[in-house]
Design goal:
9 strands; binds N-carbamoyl-L-aspartate; single chain; Rossmann fold; 13 helices; alpha/beta; four-stranded parallel beta sheet
Length: 357
């Protein structure tokens, strides 16, 4: 797999493998020395055209903990602001041969478009209202760490489903892993057709008739931010009204199972979609999600770079005592990072980008 752009790039086996790998990276403060900077000499570029605190920082910390050098491009300060096209921007970047480019853009599909013009690995860090696949991976990691499984979990996702890339990525990934998702919130913020994301997977997705129905007996509750920057219509009368009818308060949380887990991708809007008492309460794992995000992104970066590099270096693989089959490092094939210590492929040896739109 060259790029990681959507949850549909995943399989249950690959999700399990990446989450297992992330477990190795979780002791974030102690692991750096033991890791020996497995991606030293590699370069990561972040290209963000939307506000971000946690996702951009999380990728940067993950990359640095793996020994990568990081360059951050703020789109408002780049040549895009001088009228350069996305295609020319990425061709320019590609000429400098970064190994990984992490893109966030307000328009759906931009990371996919850019990836076609580049030899670098591309990771989608959120494209418009479409997908945010690393958020879904870190949410799955958080759920699996707590419950020991994803299969059979009842997960309520509440709020602005319509404008939420986090909802879309989570719905697909959770259904893929056999969880049962109930979507709750105002009718005006539903996403018609989202139930079909579960087609072909063992999990299910159900649009609940009421908040109470979505929450009843839920093992975990994922609250979404009201995407005010994307609300260009009158979806509800006011933020106060929204909180009054749909905000997650302690009383409403009590409809879920006792000790149900509370997740939120952040940034949270207190007293809009979630009450402070819930966000800061004992059932909340919002800060843990942020910590887990670094481990999951470390696992993804290491896997993405190595799984391509290793089959291209048969001689190196042999020196590490691995078979020549190439299957060990195929996407989805459960290779442990500890058995793939090959870091020597230069960017010039990568496959050519698929040019031509
Ligand atoms: C989310 C995003 O940007 O899509 N935040 C995040 O990445 N942690 C959710 C949001 O902005 O509401």
């Amino acid at each position: 797999m060259k790029d990681f752009l959507d949850t549909s790039d995943l399989t249950p086996q690959l999700v399990t493998d990446l989450l297992d790998r992330a477990e190795r990276f979780l002791p974030l403060t102690t692991i750096a020395d033991q890791l020996g900077a497995p991606l030293r000499g590699k370069h990561l570029v972040t290209l963000f055209s939307e506000a971000s605190t946690r996702t951009r920082t999380s990728f940067e910390l993950a990359a640095k903990r793996l020994g990568m050098k990081v360059v951050n491009i703020v789109v408002g300060m780049s040549s895009l602001a001088k009228g350069e096209t996305l295609r020319d921007t990425i061709l320019t970047l590609d000429a400098m041969m970064p190994d990984v480019v992490v893109v966030r853009h307000a328009v759906a599909g931009v990371p996919h478009f850019m990836a076609r013009f580049s030899k670098a690995h591309f990771i989608n860090a959120g494209d418009g209202e479409h997908e945010h696949p690393t958020q879904a991976l870190l949410d799955a990691f958080t759920l699996r760490r707590h419950f020991g499984r994803l299969e059979g979990l009842e997960v309520a996702i509440l709020g602005d489903i319509c404008h939420s890339r986090v909802a879309r990525s989570n719905v697909r990934l959770l259904a893929m892993m056999g969880a049962h998702v109930r979507l709750g919130g105002p009718r005006t913020l539903r996403a018609p057709g989202i139930e079909h994301f579960a087609n072909g997977w063992s999990g299910t997705v159900q649009v609940s008739a009421s908040l109470r129905e979505a929450l009843t007996n839920a093992d975990a509750v994922m609250v979404l931010r009201i995407q005010q920057e994307r609300l260009d219509g009158a979806f509800f009368p006011s933020l106060g009204e929204y909180f009054a009818h749909f905000g997650l308060t302690s009383e409403r949380l009590a409809w879920a199972k006792p000790n149900a887990l509370v997740l939120h991708p952040g940034p949270i809007n207190r007293e809009v979609e979630i009450a402070s008492e819930v966000a800061d309460g004992a059932q909340s794992v919002i800060q843990k999600q942020v910590t887990h995000g670094v481990a999951v992104r470390m696992a993804l970066l290491e896997w993405l770079v190595h799984q391509e590099a290793t089959p291209r270096e048969p001689a190196l693989r042999q020196t590490h005592g691995q078979s020549e089959s190439g299957h060990q490092n195929a996407p989805g094939g459960g290779t442990r990072a500890a058995t793939t210590p090959t870091y020597a492929v230069s960017v010039t040896e990568r496959g050519q980008p698929a040019h031509g739109l």
